[in-house]
Amino acid sequence: MAFVEWSETMSVGVTVVDDDHKVLVDLINRVADSVRAGDEQDVVGSALNTLVAYTRYHFTREERLMEACGYPQVAAHRLLHEDLAGQVSRLHRRYLEDSRSVIGAEFMAFLREWLIDHILVEDMDYRAYAIDNLDAQRAAETVPSIGEAETSMTDGTGILADVDWRRLRVLIVDENPNFRGVARTIMHSVRVADVQDVGTGEEAFERLRAFLPDVILCDRDLESMKGVEFVERLRASPSVPTSRVPVVMMTRFGSDADRDRALDAGVAGFVDKPITPGRLLESVAHAVTAAG
Protein backbone atom coordinates (compact mmCIF):
# COMPACT_ATOMS: atom_id res chain seq x y z
CA MET A 1 0.00 0.00 0.00
CA ALA A 2 1.33 3.43 -0.95
CA PHE A 3 2.43 5.73 1.87
CA VAL A 4 0.56 8.63 0.20
CA GLU A 5 -2.24 8.12 -2.31
CA TRP A 6 -2.93 10.73 -4.99
CA SER A 7 -6.58 11.73 -5.20
CA GLU A 8 -8.56 14.26 -7.18
CA THR A 9 -9.06 16.29 -4.00
CA MET A 10 -5.39 17.29 -4.44
CA SER A 11 -5.97 18.69 -7.94
CA VAL A 12 -5.53 22.44 -8.37
CA GLY A 13 -7.07 22.19 -11.83
CA VAL A 14 -3.85 23.09 -13.67
CA THR A 15 -2.40 20.10 -15.53
CA VAL A 16 1.26 21.10 -15.34
CA VAL A 17 1.01 21.65 -11.56
CA ASP A 18 -1.02 18.49 -10.95
CA ASP A 19 1.57 16.49 -12.90
CA ASP A 20 4.32 17.93 -10.71
CA HIS A 21 2.35 17.09 -7.58
CA LYS A 22 1.91 13.50 -8.78
CA VAL A 23 5.69 13.24 -9.24
CA LEU A 24 6.20 14.56 -5.70
CA VAL A 25 3.70 12.02 -4.33
CA ASP A 26 5.58 9.27 -6.16
CA LEU A 27 8.94 10.46 -4.85
CA ILE A 28 7.72 10.63 -1.27
CA ASN A 29 6.43 7.08 -1.65
CA ARG A 30 9.84 6.04 -2.98
CA VAL A 31 11.63 7.63 -0.03
CA ALA A 32 9.21 6.02 2.44
CA ASP A 33 9.45 2.60 0.79
CA SER A 34 13.25 2.63 0.68
CA VAL A 35 13.52 3.76 4.32
CA ARG A 36 11.01 1.13 5.52
CA ALA A 37 12.85 -1.56 3.54
CA GLY A 38 16.16 -0.63 5.13
CA ASP A 39 17.73 -0.03 1.72
CA GLU A 40 21.35 1.00 1.36
CA GLN A 41 22.44 4.61 1.08
CA ASP A 42 22.63 4.55 -2.70
CA VAL A 43 18.88 3.86 -2.84
CA VAL A 44 17.60 6.13 -0.06
CA GLY A 45 20.13 8.79 -1.07
CA SER A 46 18.99 8.65 -4.68
CA ALA A 47 15.36 9.08 -3.60
CA LEU A 48 16.19 12.01 -1.32
CA ASN A 49 18.46 13.64 -3.93
CA THR A 50 15.61 13.50 -6.41
CA LEU A 51 13.02 14.77 -3.93
CA VAL A 52 15.20 17.78 -3.05
CA ALA A 53 15.91 18.62 -6.70
CA TYR A 54 12.31 18.15 -7.83
CA THR A 55 10.95 20.21 -4.92
CA ARG A 56 13.03 23.23 -5.93
CA TYR A 57 12.19 22.72 -9.60
CA HIS A 58 8.46 22.51 -8.90
CA PHE A 59 8.47 25.57 -6.65
CA THR A 60 10.19 27.59 -9.39
CA ARG A 61 7.54 26.52 -11.88
CA GLU A 62 4.69 27.23 -9.46
CA GLU A 63 6.03 30.72 -8.75
CA ARG A 64 6.28 31.42 -12.49
CA LEU A 65 2.61 30.41 -12.79
CA MET A 66 1.51 32.61 -9.89
CA GLU A 67 3.37 35.63 -11.24
CA ALA A 68 1.89 35.18 -14.71
CA CYS A 69 -1.68 34.86 -13.44
CA GLY A 70 -1.44 37.88 -11.15
CA TYR A 71 -1.87 36.02 -7.86
CA PRO A 72 -1.65 38.79 -5.22
CA GLN A 73 -0.05 36.62 -2.51
CA VAL A 74 2.86 35.38 -4.61
CA ALA A 75 5.50 36.98 -2.33
CA ALA A 76 4.11 35.24 0.75
CA HIS A 77 3.83 31.95 -1.13
CA ARG A 78 7.44 32.28 -2.24
CA LEU A 79 8.53 32.63 1.39
CA LEU A 80 6.55 29.50 2.21
CA HIS A 81 8.34 27.67 -0.60
CA GLU A 82 11.71 28.78 0.74
CA ASP A 83 10.82 27.43 4.17
CA LEU A 84 9.56 24.09 2.82
CA ALA A 85 12.55 23.65 0.50
CA GLY A 86 14.83 24.42 3.43
CA GLN A 87 13.13 21.75 5.55
CA VAL A 88 13.65 19.14 2.84
CA SER A 89 17.28 20.18 2.36
CA ARG A 90 17.92 19.92 6.09
CA LEU A 91 16.34 16.48 6.14
CA HIS A 92 18.66 15.49 3.31
CA ARG A 93 21.72 16.77 5.17
CA ARG A 94 20.64 14.91 8.31
CA TYR A 95 20.50 11.71 6.30
CA LEU A 96 23.96 12.27 4.84
CA GLU A 97 25.36 12.89 8.33
CA ASP A 98 23.53 9.99 9.99
CA SER A 99 21.28 7.73 7.92
CA ARG A 100 19.49 6.53 11.07
CA SER A 101 18.22 10.04 11.76
CA VAL A 102 15.49 9.85 9.09
CA ILE A 103 14.04 6.52 10.12
CA GLY A 104 10.91 6.59 12.24
CA ALA A 105 7.36 7.82 12.59
CA GLU A 106 8.39 11.47 12.95
CA PHE A 107 10.12 11.42 9.59
CA MET A 108 7.20 9.67 7.88
CA ALA A 109 4.71 12.13 9.36
CA PHE A 110 6.80 15.07 8.15
CA LEU A 111 6.79 13.77 4.58
CA ARG A 112 3.04 13.29 4.52
CA GLU A 113 2.16 16.57 6.19
CA TRP A 114 4.73 18.54 4.20
CA LEU A 115 3.14 17.48 0.93
CA ILE A 116 -0.53 17.11 1.76
CA ASP A 117 -0.88 20.30 3.82
CA HIS A 118 0.88 22.35 1.17
CA ILE A 119 -1.25 21.07 -1.70
CA LEU A 120 -4.61 20.94 0.04
CA VAL A 121 -4.29 24.23 1.91
CA GLU A 122 -1.74 26.63 0.46
CA ASP A 123 -1.89 25.74 -3.23
CA MET A 124 -5.67 25.89 -3.38
CA ASP A 125 -5.48 29.64 -2.68
CA TYR A 126 -4.19 30.45 -6.18
CA ARG A 127 -6.45 27.96 -7.97
CA ALA A 128 -9.09 30.53 -8.98
CA TYR A 129 -6.45 32.77 -10.57
CA ALA A 130 -4.74 30.01 -12.58
CA ILE A 131 -7.35 27.43 -13.53
CA ASP A 132 -8.53 29.05 -16.79
CA ASN A 133 -5.48 31.21 -17.46
CA LEU A 134 -3.85 29.51 -20.45
CA ASP A 135 -1.16 32.20 -20.82
CA ALA A 136 -0.07 31.63 -17.21
CA GLN A 137 -0.03 27.88 -17.70
CA ARG A 138 2.12 28.24 -20.81
CA ALA A 139 4.49 30.49 -18.84
CA ALA A 140 4.83 27.76 -16.22
CA GLU A 141 5.80 25.28 -18.92
CA THR A 142 8.75 27.44 -20.00
CA VAL A 143 10.69 26.63 -16.81
CA PRO A 144 13.74 24.53 -17.78
CA SER A 145 13.56 20.82 -17.02
CA ILE A 146 14.74 19.46 -13.69
CA GLY A 147 17.93 18.19 -15.32
CA GLU A 148 18.72 21.54 -16.96
CA ALA A 149 18.14 23.38 -13.70
CA GLU A 150 20.48 21.05 -11.79
CA THR A 151 23.24 21.24 -14.37
CA SER A 152 22.86 25.02 -14.85
CA MET A 153 21.84 24.60 -18.49
CA THR A 154 19.01 27.09 -18.19
CA ASP A 155 19.20 28.68 -21.63
CA GLY A 156 17.73 25.66 -23.40
CA THR A 157 20.85 25.12 -25.52
CA GLY A 158 22.52 22.36 -23.50
CA ILE A 159 22.71 18.65 -24.26
CA LEU A 160 19.39 17.98 -22.52
CA ALA A 161 17.59 20.25 -24.99
CA ASP A 162 18.88 18.12 -27.88
CA VAL A 163 16.83 15.09 -26.80
CA ASP A 164 13.19 14.53 -27.65
CA TRP A 165 12.39 13.03 -24.25
CA ARG A 166 8.74 12.31 -25.04
CA ARG A 167 9.75 9.91 -27.82
CA LEU A 168 12.50 8.16 -25.85
CA ARG A 169 12.26 4.50 -24.83
CA VAL A 170 14.20 3.48 -21.72
CA LEU A 171 14.96 0.12 -20.09
CA ILE A 172 16.15 0.15 -16.46
CA VAL A 173 18.02 -2.91 -15.15
CA ASP A 174 18.56 -2.95 -11.38
CA GLU A 175 17.86 -5.52 -8.68
CA ASN A 176 16.37 -3.04 -6.21
CA PRO A 177 12.72 -2.20 -7.02
CA ASN A 178 12.82 1.05 -5.05
CA PHE A 179 15.85 2.25 -6.98
CA ARG A 180 14.17 1.31 -10.25
CA GLY A 181 11.18 3.33 -9.11
CA VAL A 182 13.32 6.41 -8.47
CA ALA A 183 14.99 6.15 -11.88
CA ARG A 184 11.61 5.62 -13.54
CA THR A 185 10.18 8.69 -11.79
CA ILE A 186 13.09 10.81 -13.04
CA MET A 187 12.39 9.65 -16.58
CA HIS A 188 8.69 10.40 -16.19
CA SER A 189 9.50 13.87 -14.82
CA VAL A 190 10.84 14.85 -18.26
CA ARG A 191 7.83 13.19 -19.93
CA VAL A 192 9.51 9.98 -21.13
CA ALA A 193 6.41 7.94 -21.88
CA ASP A 194 7.89 4.48 -22.51
CA VAL A 195 9.93 3.35 -19.50
CA GLN A 196 10.25 -0.33 -18.61
CA ASP A 197 12.28 -1.94 -15.84
CA VAL A 198 13.52 -5.39 -14.84
CA GLY A 199 15.52 -6.80 -11.94
CA THR A 200 18.13 -9.04 -13.61
CA GLY A 201 20.23 -9.30 -16.74
CA GLU A 202 18.37 -12.43 -17.78
CA GLU A 203 15.05 -10.59 -17.50
CA ALA A 204 16.50 -7.76 -19.54
CA PHE A 205 17.40 -10.07 -22.43
CA GLU A 206 13.94 -11.59 -22.27
CA ARG A 207 12.38 -8.11 -22.38
CA LEU A 208 14.58 -7.11 -25.31
CA ARG A 209 12.86 -9.76 -27.42
CA ALA A 210 9.82 -7.50 -27.66
CA PHE A 211 11.09 -4.07 -26.59
CA LEU A 212 13.83 -2.08 -28.34
CA PRO A 213 14.86 0.83 -26.11
CA ASP A 214 16.85 3.88 -27.14
CA VAL A 215 19.01 3.53 -24.03
CA ILE A 216 19.54 1.02 -21.22
CA LEU A 217 20.31 2.06 -17.64
CA CYS A 218 22.12 -0.88 -16.02
CA ASP A 219 23.45 -1.36 -12.50
CA ARG A 220 27.11 -2.35 -12.36
CA ASP A 221 26.61 -4.86 -9.54
CA LEU A 222 23.88 -7.20 -10.74
CA GLU A 223 24.40 -10.43 -8.78
CA SER A 224 23.56 -13.11 -11.32
CA MET A 225 25.15 -11.29 -14.24
CA LYS A 226 27.45 -8.35 -13.56
CA GLY A 227 26.71 -5.18 -15.47
CA VAL A 228 29.80 -5.46 -17.62
CA GLU A 229 28.94 -9.09 -18.45
CA PHE A 230 25.48 -7.92 -19.48
CA VAL A 231 27.01 -5.34 -21.83
CA GLU A 232 29.49 -7.84 -23.28
CA ARG A 233 26.69 -10.29 -23.98
CA LEU A 234 24.53 -7.52 -25.40
CA ARG A 235 27.24 -6.43 -27.81
CA ALA A 236 27.64 -10.05 -28.97
CA SER A 237 23.89 -10.39 -29.54
CA PRO A 238 22.84 -11.74 -32.95
CA SER A 239 20.20 -9.01 -33.05
CA VAL A 240 22.02 -6.05 -34.56
CA PRO A 241 19.52 -3.37 -33.39
CA THR A 242 19.71 -4.68 -29.82
CA SER A 243 23.49 -4.95 -29.84
CA ARG A 244 23.81 -1.26 -30.72
CA VAL A 245 21.61 0.12 -27.92
CA PRO A 246 23.73 2.49 -25.77
CA VAL A 247 24.16 1.48 -22.14
CA VAL A 248 24.66 3.88 -19.23
CA MET A 249 26.16 2.05 -16.25
CA MET A 250 25.03 3.08 -12.77
CA THR A 251 27.79 2.44 -10.22
CA ARG A 252 28.44 2.65 -6.49
CA PHE A 253 32.20 2.33 -6.67
CA GLY A 254 34.77 0.50 -8.72
CA SER A 255 38.39 0.28 -9.74
CA ASP A 256 39.95 1.76 -12.84
CA ALA A 257 40.20 -1.78 -14.19
CA ASP A 258 36.43 -2.21 -13.81
CA ARG A 259 35.83 1.04 -15.62
CA ASP A 260 38.27 0.16 -18.41
CA ARG A 261 36.61 -3.23 -18.91
CA ALA A 262 33.21 -1.57 -19.10
CA LEU A 263 34.47 0.95 -21.67
CA ASP A 264 36.03 -1.86 -23.71
CA ALA A 265 32.69 -3.68 -23.60
CA GLY A 266 31.00 -0.64 -25.10
CA VAL A 267 29.46 1.22 -22.15
CA ALA A 268 28.37 4.67 -23.35
CA GLY A 269 28.57 6.45 -20.00
CA PHE A 270 28.58 6.22 -16.22
CA VAL A 271 26.53 7.77 -13.44
CA ASP A 272 27.48 7.38 -9.78
CA LYS A 273 25.07 6.22 -7.09
CA PRO A 274 23.41 7.83 -5.23
CA ILE A 275 22.15 9.39 -8.43
CA THR A 276 20.78 12.87 -8.95
CA PRO A 277 18.27 13.78 -11.70
CA GLY A 278 20.70 16.07 -13.49
CA ARG A 279 23.56 13.57 -13.62
CA LEU A 280 21.29 10.76 -14.77
CA LEU A 281 19.55 12.80 -17.47
CA GLU A 282 22.81 14.29 -18.70
CA SER A 283 24.36 10.81 -19.02
CA VAL A 284 21.32 9.56 -20.93
CA ALA A 285 21.36 12.61 -23.20
CA HIS A 286 25.04 12.14 -24.07
CA ALA A 287 24.50 8.43 -24.75
CA VAL A 288 21.52 8.82 -27.07
CA THR A 289 22.91 11.78 -29.00
CA ALA A 290 26.24 10.00 -29.53
CA ALA A 291 24.36 6.96 -30.82
CA GLY A 292 22.60 9.13 -33.38
> How big a fraction of the residues is strand?
5-15%
Average pLDDT, rounded to a whole number, is 87
Describe the global form: globular
Q: Give the CATH architecture of the largest domain.
A: Up-down Bundle
In angstroms, what is the radius of gyration?
A: 20 Å
Q: Give the tally of β-strands.
A: 5
The CATH superfamily label of the largest domain reads Hemerythrin-like
Biggest sheet descriptor = 5 strands, parallel
CATH topology of the largest domain: Four Helix Bundle (Hemerythrin (Met), subunit A)
What distance lies between the first and last C-alpha atoms, to the nearest angstrom? 41 Å
By CATH reckoning, the class of the largest domain would read Mainly Alpha
Total number of distinct structural domains: 2
SS element count, helices? 13
Strand order of the largest sheet: 2-1-3-4-5
Which stretches are low in confidence, meaning pLDDT under 50 for 5 or more residues running? 152-157
Oligomer: single chain
**Sequence of secondary-structure elements:** HHHHHHHEHEHEHHEHEH
Question: What percent of the residues sit in helical stretches (DSSP H or I)?
Answer: 55-70%
Query: Structural class, from secondary structure content?
Result: alpha/beta
